[in-house]
Design brief:
Length: about 230
């Protein structure tokens, strides 16, 4: 009786590599959505458990599908897009998982992980937006035409604006200054401001390409103009 050949290692590039890696993150995302839709608040130990599962799924992505920091000019554009999309999916799930506890992390040390996770993943999402809008991808992948990706980038910008607003308030409060020390050490306001400025410029550039893009630009323009008047966005 003929036998099936042995399975290929996950590190070997195949036609299904992207779908398998995406499915691993999707399974965690389903659990996150199910838990968040429950009537009772999700206990924080379960948030941490899902955080661990998500981290494991992300670390299991084969090397050839991991987003590279180097120039992508020598790589197939389809591969570059898959890397960015996997990165976006992971950081989106991270934001959805931790956003309920993000503000609490500014007051209570036990929730600092959620604050830092939300900000770092939000920054990573806006970096993905910058990459998709770059010369390597722009002509092949019109990201701004899709409401799902637009929503992800607006989610990231919203969380960054919320953090700056809440953190500025807590910094001015004497009773919270000592409690927020570790968060301030990990998160740089100027880095957040630069990311928001870059995203605002990108949305301004593509806002006339579709209704979705124009709507996204209007939302971000309102947030940075009305919620963060102390920052200057051109």
């Amino acid at each position: 009786m003929p036998e099936l050949p042995p399975s290929r290692p996950a590190s070997e590039p195949t036609f299904y590599s992207y779908m398998i890696a995406n499915d691993q993150i999707l399974r965690v995302f389903r659990c996150v959505v199910e838990q968040l839709n429950m009537l009772s608040p999700l206990p924080y130990d379960q948030v941490l458990a899902l955080n661990g599962r998500l981290a494991d799924a992300f670390s299991a992505i084969p090397l050839h599908l991991q987003r590279q920091e180097s120039d992508h000019s020598n790589h197939p554009i389809e591969l570059v897009a898959q890397r960015i999309q996997l990165d976006m999916f992971y950081h989106k799930v991270m934001c959805v998982l931790h956003r309920r506890y993000m503000s609490d992390g500014l007051k209570l040390r036990e929730f600092h992980l959620s604050t830092v996770a939300c900000i770092r993943s939000s920054l990573a999402l806006l970096e993905c937006q910058r990459l998709l809008n770059g010369k390597e991808c722009r002509g092949h992948h019109k990201w701004y035409m899709f409401s799902v990706s637009n929503h992800d980038f607006i989610l990231a910008a919203t969380m960054l604006c919320l953090y700056l607003t809440r953190d500025n308030r807590s910094r001015s409060s004497e009773e919270n200054m000592g409690e927020n020390e570790s968060v301030h050490m990990d998160i740089n306001h100027s880095e957040i401001q630069k990311a928001l400025e870059a995203s605002h410029a990108i949305w301004s550039e593509v806002r006339d390409t579709s209704k979705e893009a124009h709507k996204a630009f209007s939302i971000l323009d309102y947030m940075v103009g009305n919620r963060l008047p102390q920052y200057k966005f051109v």
